[in-house]
Backbone:
């Protein structure tokens, strides 16, 4: 600003002349400069100035005439300067000036903004500026300034600037030196610009370029050409492309990539790429291509569009990856897998044949042993026979395990999903191990939660196999305590249930580091365990695979010395309920004389849910005392369930004491026996027992026994035993007194065994030694059932069955039951497909033959009538026969 009393300078670019501070318009001053030059050299003085102006008067007068025009020019220049300043602000450009004489530094406001410094912190010197920068930035700027001064040239550099928020910015600094008349640099003037975004973009571009250039995968970029079905000409190829194909970049530029295609490339894969190019989408395929030298290679080809600012596809990028080695390895794996499967099938076929050959003599060994045990034997002879039976059973178990694992490995395991009674299955598997468990003094119980449905859909036989394996292991590895089957369930939607069946024991347990190993083939928790307890080590392997095939899992929790818990988890469809007839026990009082706490608790819970009032005593003496107290109080028990095998319960002595004290008239006695004690019921009847339960873990048997006992006849009548022989009304129809049976069997020992078993069951037996003889006899005579071997000379059992089904009249409808040493699932299916009605695998047991007779002989006449209506069509197998 001018001092007080001084004239205000004009709006033009004015010049103040010392020492009198006279204001002269710049245009005039510029014209007068040549005249004034001489006086300037001699110093300023009023006299000198006046003389100079007088000398220049003609020129000055001429210039004054154009002053107005000059002012307009100045206005235009000022507008241009304003536009430049605005452009600098928009471009984030600031300016700076450094006076080298006094070191003064001047920044424009934009420069301060770029450095993110408030006005009070704007540096006034170069050193202050450099100190405000990060060390590397300050060093770079100082070097650039020194070089520019020394070399008197323009300079340009980029530095890092740290803002108040700690973020680093990239700033361009440029300038030039200003010299005086002597050529000496007096000042530096320059500009700064925030180039952070551009720098970041450049860094990303540099990084991307480096990635593409150094990528192991080949990269092609094509300019998009809608008229070219291959996408367009190649405009870029990286070094990896050359390494992969042998084609250098300059040899492929401008070409369509179709030259890479192998003539035998899959047209489907090429069509996928073409559709992607047409639609502007991505695609990934594997195609066959050729290198420059003509060799072939498999590549994984990925294609993706590159779009411009308008969203239009401007280019295509293709990434090629060599997968030749992987494809070759996959082909080798497929070949190896097929070879392994072929080997497994061969092994499976061999084992199936061996199984057949072993089962045939085993049938004789086990069958004859069973018959031997039913004869009068000395204790030593019975011990020998029992040893043979147990050894044969163990051998059969090993054969079954090996056969199952071979079927699994050969991929021949087929599941047969059918509705079945889940509660019955859980009770039956526990009943199977009950004799062995009680022989060791173990408590066995089945605990089924209320949410568990009565019927589900699954492969009943395979689930039974899994649970029997788990229960067998539990009994085998438990010396004292208990074994339980626990079932729980949660509904999954309206039609499925999440089922968890746990087999728990108090046995030796498994260490944590061996928990997974127990599921490995031929492995048990310890090698010494295998020697001590026996077994193939295949049971859990087979069980886990069976459960996995059913869509479930097996988990184990165990600790050494504390027992184990194996849980089978399955999600199964729920089948329609079939109500189980149960006795009405409301108001009835029942006493349990059971020495096993868990079994007693299970029985008590079942009876109480039916409304009974239940008391439990663990010994015969305590139970007798309870009977006396109840009788004396005038509230006798309606029934007493007495365990036949227990250290503290003697069912024989108990019955005699009850009779001696006159307590039997008011109270019915029911004996709880094991499945291996079905004979000798007459003895228990003589002792005064009204009913027996030989499968006491099964509710149906228990209900029948209670119904029979609580509705007992008058004293002296003969009650019937409750159990398998006393079937409910819904069971098979009663069979004829002496059923006519045709036995088709070529093996002499098996022939003899079957005749003995059938004869003991009251059958009249005819024998055919081959299929052709069987057809002839079936045509000549009416039989109630045919037991058919499958592998025989002259005509096998399958062909014979088909021939029987083709016979005229009633002969075509005779029930045919396969009795074969072929034990695989496909063998069962083959039998049923040939027209057979049922299937028994050798070694056969008396129980299996008895069940088949009960199943089919009683239906003979009714079946014949129905088959007549069906115009001679072969009968459809009953669900119970297939399951």
Residues:
């Amino acid at each position: 600003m001018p001092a007080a009393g001084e004239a205000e300078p004009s709006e033009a670019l004015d010049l103040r002349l010392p020492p009198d501070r006279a204001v002269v318009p710049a245009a005039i001053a510029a014209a007068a400069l040549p005249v004034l030059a001489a006086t300037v050299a001699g110093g300023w003085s009023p006299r000198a100035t006046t003389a100079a102006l007088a000398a220049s008067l003609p020129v000055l007068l001429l210039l004054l005439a154009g002053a107005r025009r000059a002012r307009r020019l100045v206005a235009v220049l000022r507008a241009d300067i304003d536009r430049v300043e605005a452009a600098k602000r928009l471009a984030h450009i600031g300016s700076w000036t450094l006076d080298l004489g006094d070191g003064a530094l001047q920044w424009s406001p934009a420069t301060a903004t770029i450095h993110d410094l408030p006005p009070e912190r704007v540096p006034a010197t170069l050193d202050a500026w450099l100190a405000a920068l990060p060390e590397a930035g300050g060093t770079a700027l100082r070097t650039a300034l020194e070089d520019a001064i020394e070399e008197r040239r323009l300079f340009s550099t980029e530095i890092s600037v740290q803002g108040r928020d700690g973020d680093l910015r990239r700033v361009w600094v440029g300038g030039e030196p200003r010299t005086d008349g002597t050529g000496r640099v007096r000042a530096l003037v320059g500009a700064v610009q925030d180039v952070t975004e551009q720098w970041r973009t450049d860094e990303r571009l540099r990084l991307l370029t480096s990635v593409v250039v150094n990528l192991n995968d080949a990269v092609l970029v094509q300019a998009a050409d809608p008229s070219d079905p291959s996408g367009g000409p190649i405009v870029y190829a990286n070094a990896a492309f050359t390494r992969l194909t042998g084609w250098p970049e300059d040899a492929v530029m401008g070409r369509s990539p179709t030259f890479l295609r192998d003539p035998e490339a899959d047209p489907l894969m090429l069509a996928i790429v073409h559709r992607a190019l047409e639609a502007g989408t991505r695609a990934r395929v594997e195609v066959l291509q050729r290198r420059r030298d003509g060799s072939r290679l498999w590549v994984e080809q990925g294609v993706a569009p590159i779009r411009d600012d308008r969203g239009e596809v401007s280019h295509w990028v293709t990434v090629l990856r060599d997968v030749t080695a992987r494809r070759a390895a996959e082909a080798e794996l497929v070949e190896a897998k097929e070879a392994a499967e072929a080997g497994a099938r061969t092994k499976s076929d061999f084992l199936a044949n061996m199984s057949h050959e072993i089962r045939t003599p085993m049938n004789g060994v086990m069958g004859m042993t069973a018959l031997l045990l039913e004869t009068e034997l000395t204790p030593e002879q019975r011990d020998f026979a029992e040893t043979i039976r147990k050894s044969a059973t163990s051998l059969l178990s090993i054969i079954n395990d090996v056969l199952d694992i071979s079927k699994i490995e050969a991929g021949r395991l087929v599941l047969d999903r059918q509705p079945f009674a889940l509660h019955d299955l859980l009770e039956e598997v526990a009943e199977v191990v009950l004799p062995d468990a009680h022989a060791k003094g173990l408590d066995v119980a089945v605990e089924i939660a209320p949410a568990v449905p009565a019927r589900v859909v699954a492969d009943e036989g395979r689930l039974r196999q899994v649970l029997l394996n788990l229960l067998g292991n539990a009994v085998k590895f438990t010396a004292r305590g208990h074994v339980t089957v626990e079932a729980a369930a949660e509904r999954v939607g309206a039609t499925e249930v999440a089922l968890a069946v746990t087999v728990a024991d108090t046995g030796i347990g498994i260490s944590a580091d061996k928990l997974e190993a127990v599921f490995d083939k031929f492995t048990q928790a310890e090698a010494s365990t295998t020697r001590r307890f026996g077994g193939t080590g295949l049971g859990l392997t087979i069980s886990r695979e069976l459960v996995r095939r059913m869509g479930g899992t097996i988990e184990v929790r165990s600790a050494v010395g504390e027992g184990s818990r194996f849980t089978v988890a399955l999600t199964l469809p729920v089948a329609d309920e079939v109500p189980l007839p149960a006795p009405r026990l409301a108001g009835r009082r029942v006493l349990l004389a059971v020495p096993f706490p868990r079994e007693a608790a299970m029985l008590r819970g079942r009876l109480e849910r039916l409304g009974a009032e239940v008391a439990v005593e663990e010994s015969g003496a305590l139970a007798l005392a309870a009977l006396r107290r109840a009788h004396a109080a005038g509230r006798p028990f309606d029934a007493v369930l007495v365990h036949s095998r227990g250290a503290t319960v003697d069912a024989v002595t108990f019955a005699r004491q009850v009779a001696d004290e006159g307590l039997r008239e008011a109270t019915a006695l029911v004996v709880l026996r094991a499945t291996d004690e079905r004979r000798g019921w007459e003895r228990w009847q003589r002792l005064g027992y009204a009913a027996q339960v030989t499968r006491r873990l099964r509710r149906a048997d228990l209900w029948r026994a209670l119904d029979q006992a609580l509705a007992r006849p008058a004293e002296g009548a003969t009650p019937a035993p409750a159990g398998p022989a006393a079937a409910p009304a819904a069971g098979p129809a009663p069979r004829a007194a002496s059923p006519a049976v045709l036995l088709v069997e070529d093996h002499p020992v098996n022939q003899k065994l079957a005749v003995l078993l059938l004869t003991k069951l009251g059958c009249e037996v005819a024998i055919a030694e081959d299929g052709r003889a069987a057809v002839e006899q079936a045509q000549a005579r009416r039989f109630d059932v045919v037991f058919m071997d499958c592998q025989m000379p002259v005509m096998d059992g399958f062909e014979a069955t088909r021939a029987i089904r083709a016979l005229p009249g009633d002969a075509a409808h005779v029930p045919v039951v396969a009795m074969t040493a072929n034990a695989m699932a496909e063998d069962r299916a083959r039998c049923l497909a040939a027209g057979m009605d049922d299937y028994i695998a050798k070694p056969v047991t008396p129980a299996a033959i008895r069940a088949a007779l009960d199943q089919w002989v009683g239906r003979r006449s009714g079946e014949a009538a129905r088959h007549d209506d069906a115009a001679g069509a072969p009968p459809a197998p009953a669900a119970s026969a297939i399951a």
